[in-house]
Amino acid sequence: MGRTLSTLKAFLARSPAYADARDPVMAWYRQVRQSDWADPTDIKRDIRSASILKDGRVVLNVAGNKYRIVAWINYPYRVVYVRFIGTHRQYDRIDAQTV
Predict the structure, then answer these.
(1) pLDDT, tens digit, 9 for 90 and up, residues 25-74
(2) Residues 69, 28: contact at Cβ < 8 Å?
(3) 78-92 per-position pLDDT tens digit
(4) Would the pLDDT of 2 be above 70?
(5) Which of 4, 55, 83, 88 has the fewest CB atoms in 10 Å of its CB?
(6) What is the SS3 assignment for the chain?
C-alpha cells in the first residue's frame, strides 16, 4: 500500500482545487488498509457504491462522487493498486478497464 499512498498524495498535491478531497481520500485509504477483500463480494459488502469491473478492476466514488478511484485488486495477495484518481469529469475521459 506504500505506493498507493504516494499516488494518492501526489494527486492531492497536484492542485489546491483538490483540497476538499484530502479527508475523504485518506478515509478511503484507511478503510482499504483495514480491509481483507478476498473477492469482489467483500468489496460490495464494505462499499456498496463500488462498481466491479472485469479482471480485478473496481471503481470507487469518493467525496460524494465528486472524485473517483479506479483500483486493480490482486485478491489472492490482498493488494490494492490505484490505477487512477481524479474528478468525475476526468474519469469520464478515461477507460477504467485499461487505465
Answers:
(1) 999 999 999 999 999 999 999 999 999 999 999 999 999 899 999 999 99
(2) yes
(3) 899 999 999 999 999
(4) no
(5) 55
(6) CHHHHHHHHHHHHHCHHHHHHHHHHHHHHHHHHHCCCCCHHHHHHHCCCCEECCCCEEEEEECCCCEEEEEEEEHHHCEEEEEEEEEHHHHCCCCCCCC
Give exposure, 10-31, as e/b (b: 16+ Cβ within 10 Å): ebbeeeeebeebeeebeebbee
One-letter amino acid for residue 87 of the chain = T
- pTM higher than 0.90: yes
The x, y and z cell numbers of residue 23, run together, are 479527508
Q: Is 68 exposed, middle or buried (0-12, 13-18, 19+ CB in 10 A)?
A: buried
